[in-house]
C-alpha cells in the first residue's frame, strides 16, 4: 500500500518546467530591493561612520598630546575643558551675537562675490577680447592670499566692515568666475547647435541651454568660492575689530591675548562646524545636480 502511494506520487509529480529556472531567476532579479528609507539609512551611515572614525582619532591624538604635557595647559587645553567651555559659551548672548555677526558678514560677502563672479565669468566666457585681456588675471587673483589684500583694504576703508567685505569679495569672486568660465567652456557644441536649431538665441540660449549644462562646474566654483570667502572673513575679523560687533574672529583674537586656550579652541570648533555644515549643503546640491544629469545613479 505504501509502495503504491510512493509510486503514484513519483509518477504523478509534475514534470520540471524548463522555464521555471529562468522564471525563478527573473523573480529574484526583479524582486524589489531594500525600501527607500532603508537605502537612505544605509547611505547616510556609509557616509557618516568614516567621519565619526576620523573625529574619534583626532580627539584621541589631541588627548594624548595633552597627556604628554609638551605644552602648558594655558596653551593647549584638553578636549574636555574645550567642550565644557563651548557649552558654557553657548548659554551666553555674546556667543550668539558673535555667530550672527559672522554669519551675516559671510552671507553678504558670499552673495556679493556670487554676483561679481557670475557677471565677470559669463562676460569673459563669451567675449573673446575680454578673455584675452583679463582671463589669466582672474586665475592670478585667485592664487593671491587674501591676507595680502588687507593693508590695501585698510588704507581704502580704514578699520571698518567695508574693509572686511572688500577682501571677502576679492578673495571669493575669482573662484566663482573661474567656475562659470569652465562650465561655459565645456558645454558640448552639439548641445549649443541643438538649442539654436529649436530657436534659442541670446538670453534664451543662456537660460535654456548654457546655464543648465554649466551647473556642475558652477556649483564646484561656488563651493570653492565659499571656502575662499570663509577664510578671508576669518582673516579679516582677526585684524579688524569693530566696537559693539562681536564676531568669531574677534573672539579668537581676544582668547589668544588672554591665554584662554579652552575659549580659543571652543571658538575654533564653532568655525569648523559652520564650515562643515555649509560644505554638506553644497554636497547635497552637487549630488542632486549629478543625479538630474545622470552622472551618477546614487
Polypeptide structure, described:
Residues 99-282 form the ABC transmembrane type-1 domain. Keywords: Cell membrane, Membrane, Transmembrane, Transmembrane helix, Transport. The structure is a single chain. The protein is mainly alpha-helical. The chain is 79% helix and 0% strand. It is built from twelve helices and no strands. It has helices at residues 2-11, 20-30, 36-68, 79-89, 93-126, 128-143, 150-157, 161-185, 189-197, 203-239, 248-257, 261-292. Helix 5 (93-126) packs across helix 8. It is globular and about 70 Å long. 26% of the residues are buried. Residues 1-13 have low confidence and may be disordered.
Helical residue percent band: over 70%
General form? globular
Order of helices and strands: HHHHHHHHHHHH
What is the CA-CA span between the terminal residues?
Answer: 62 Å
Major sheet characteristics: none
Q: Name the beta content range.
A: under 5%
- Please, how many helices? 12
Number of strands: 0
Radius of gyration: 29 Å
Contiguous low-pLDDT stretches (5 residues minimum) are 1-13
Class from secondary-structure proportions:
mainly alpha
* Average of per-residue pLDDT values: 82
Helix-strand layout with pairing:
Blueprint lengths: L1 H10 L8 H11 L5 H33 L10 H11 L3 H34 L1 H16 L6 H8 L3 H25 L3 H9 L5 H37 L8 H10 L3 H32 L6
Helix pairs in contact: 4-12, 5-6, 5-8, 5-10, 6-8, 7-8, 8-10, 9-10, 10-11, 10-12, 11-12
Protein name: NitT/TauT family transport system permease protein
GO cellular component, one term: plasma membrane
Keywords: Cell membrane, Membrane, Transmembrane, Transmembrane helix, Transport
Amino acid at each position: 500500500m505504501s509502495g503504491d502511494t510512493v509510486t503514484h506520487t513519483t509518477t504523478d509529480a509534475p514534470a520540471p518546467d524548463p522555464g521555471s529556472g529562468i522564471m525563478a531567476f527573473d523573480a529574484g532579479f526583479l524582486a524589489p530591493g531594500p525600501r527607500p528609507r532603508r537605502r537612505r539609512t544605509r547611505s547616510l551611515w556609509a557616509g557618516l561612520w568614516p567621519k565619526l572614525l576620523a573625529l574619534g582619532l583626532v580627539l584621541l591624538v589631541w588627548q594624548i598630546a595633552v597627556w604628554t604635557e609638551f605644552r602648558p595647559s594655558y596653551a593647549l587645553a584638553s578636549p574636555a575643558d574645550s567642550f565644557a567651555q563651548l557649552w558654557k559659551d553657548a548659554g551666553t548672548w555674546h556667543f550668539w551675537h558673535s555667530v550672527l555677526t559672522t554669519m551675516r558678514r559671510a552671507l553678504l560677502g558670499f552673495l556679493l562675490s556670487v554676483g561679481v563672479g557670475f557677471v565677470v565669468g559669463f562676460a569673459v566666457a563669451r567675449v573673446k577680447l575680454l578673455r584675452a585681456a583679463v582671463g589669466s588675471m582672474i586665475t592670478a587673483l585667485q592664487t593671491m592670499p587674501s591676507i595680502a589684500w588687507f593693508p590695501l583694504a585698510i588704507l581704502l576703508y580704514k578699520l571698518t566692515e567695508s574693509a572686511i567685505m572688500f577682501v571677502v569679495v576679492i578673495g571669493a569672486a575669482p573662484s566663482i568666475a573661474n567656475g562659470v568660465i569652465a562650465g561655459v567652456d565645456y558645454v558640448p557644441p552639439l548641445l549649443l547647435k541643438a538649442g539654436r536649431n529649436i530657436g534659442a538665441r541670446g538670453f534664451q540660449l543662456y537660460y535654456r541651454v548654457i546655464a543648465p549644462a554649466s551647473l556642475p562646474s558652477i556649483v564646484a566654483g561656488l563651493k570653492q568660492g565659499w571656502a575662499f570667502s570663509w577664510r578671508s572673513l576669518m582673516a579679516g575679523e582677526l585684524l579688524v575689530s569693530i566696537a559693539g560687533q562681536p564676531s568669531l574672529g574677534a573672539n579668537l583674537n581676544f582668547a589668544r591675548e588672554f591665554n584662554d586656550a579652552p575659549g580659543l579652541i571652543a571658538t575654533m570648533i564653532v568655525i569648523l562646524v559652520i564650515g562643515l555644515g555649509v560644505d554638506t549643503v553644497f554636497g547635497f546640491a552637487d549630488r542632486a545636480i549629478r543625479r538630474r544629469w545622470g552622472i551618477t545613479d546614487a
